[in-house]
């Protein structure tokens, strides 16, 4: 019986060790979304590309659970959360968000059509780096 319990516990733990998967979504798909509080992304405030010299750098990391939605949908929610944080700071500083890049492990997305997230077994994570100028 003890061996059976050990086997069942080991089998249940296997999905927790599943490899992370990179999810790619477009900036336009995030712009089309509305947060639960009704906020939307203003695309005119964002510029993608490499780090901009002289810009005040910032990083935002967000995650979304994968329950009841696809990995792509969870990725969009995580990115929306991060981008709204950048947008709020940019408006407060009266600047734009420049040199926007997203990261999923070692994979970087620096184009509007290739924002990336890392999807695990239960959580989708996004890391966004950019500057204000």
TrEMBL record:
Domain of life: Bacteria
Signal peptide segment: 1-18
Keywords: Signal
Name of the featured protein: Excinuclease ATPase subunit
Species this chain originates from: Archangium gephyra
């Amino acid at each position: 019986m003890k061996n059976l319990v050990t086997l069942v516990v080991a089998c249940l733990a296997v999905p927790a060790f599943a490899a992370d998967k990179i999810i790619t979504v477009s900036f336009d798909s995030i712009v089309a979304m509305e947060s639960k509080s009704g906020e939307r992304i203003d695309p005119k405030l964002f510029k993608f590309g490499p780090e901009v010299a002289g810009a005040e750098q910032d990083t935002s990391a967000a995650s979304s659970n994968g329950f009841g939605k696809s990995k792509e949908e969870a990725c969009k929610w995580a990115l929306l959360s991060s981008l709204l944080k950048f947008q709020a700071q940019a408006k407060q500083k009266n600047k734009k968000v420049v040199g926007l890049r997203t990261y999923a492990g070692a994979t970087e997305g620096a184009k509007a059509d290739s924002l990336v997230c890392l999807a695990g077994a239960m959580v989708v994570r996004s890391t966004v780096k950019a500057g204000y100028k």
